[in-house]
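sry for the spam today, last one i promise. struct tokens for design, 211 residues
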């Protein structure tokens, strides 16, 4: 077995903004789009909120999703993916923690997922997403984010399962699929009412969008 890498810690201006919302005395409904995190569950439930977790990155490795487009290029079947994932009621969530998924998901899934999340968020609901800048480099590791404070996160390196669809090897992580610039990000969230950027020191552009 490969030794587990120590977790890193980083400050998050974007999550600090989310924290202000979580100070609400009214219970909020939060969708955490990563593998189950005991830290995130504890942080949110201690404040009286409900949390749902769904690991979309892991779900995207299902070999049954692989298909081809009209040009014969291999893609993932976004309709099948959405039929099996993100099955919640409309306007159910106040907050969505999207983390860095857009950078690591297959491109054929990104826009359909963002569109589905728009329907799942309540009006004025907020989504937090992280995007790497070009300076991060093509080997930027994929992390799972665990809340460790009101403005801080612990970063856990994500490895693929040995039986995952990807061909990178049994201990390899997910690979950066693309780099979005500000214009790309604004286009991705064009149906949302507002967008705010925070540029972090680790070549990550944190993005806060409002439904």
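last one done:
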């Amino acid at each position: 077995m490969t030794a587990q890498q120590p977790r890193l810690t980083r400050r998050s201006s974007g999550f600090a903004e989310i924290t202000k919302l979580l100070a609400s005395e009214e219970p909020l409904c939060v969708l955490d789009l990563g593998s189950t995190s005991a830290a995130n569950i504890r942080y949110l439930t201690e404040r009286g909120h409900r949390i749902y977790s769904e690991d979309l990155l892991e779900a995207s490795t299902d070999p049954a999703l692989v298909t081809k487009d009209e040009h014969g290029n291999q893609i993932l079947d976004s309709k099948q993916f959405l039929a099996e994932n993100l099955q919640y009621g409309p306007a159910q969530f106040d907050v969505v923690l999207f983390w860095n998924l857009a950078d690591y998901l297959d491109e054929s899934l990104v826009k359909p997922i963002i569109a589905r999340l728009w329907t799942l968020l309540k009006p004025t609901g907020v989504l937090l997403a992280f995007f790497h800048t070009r300076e991060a480099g093509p080997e930027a590791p994929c992390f799972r984010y665990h809340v460790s404070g009101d403005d801080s996160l612990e970063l856990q390196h994500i490895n693929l399962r040995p039986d995952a669809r990807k061909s990178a090897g049994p201990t390899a992580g997910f690979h950066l699929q693309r780099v979005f610039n500000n214009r790309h990000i604004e286009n991705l969230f064009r149906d949302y009412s507002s967008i705010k950027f925070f540029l972090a020191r680790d070549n990550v552009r944190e993005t806060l969008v409002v439904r």
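The mean pLDDT is 90. ok im logging off now
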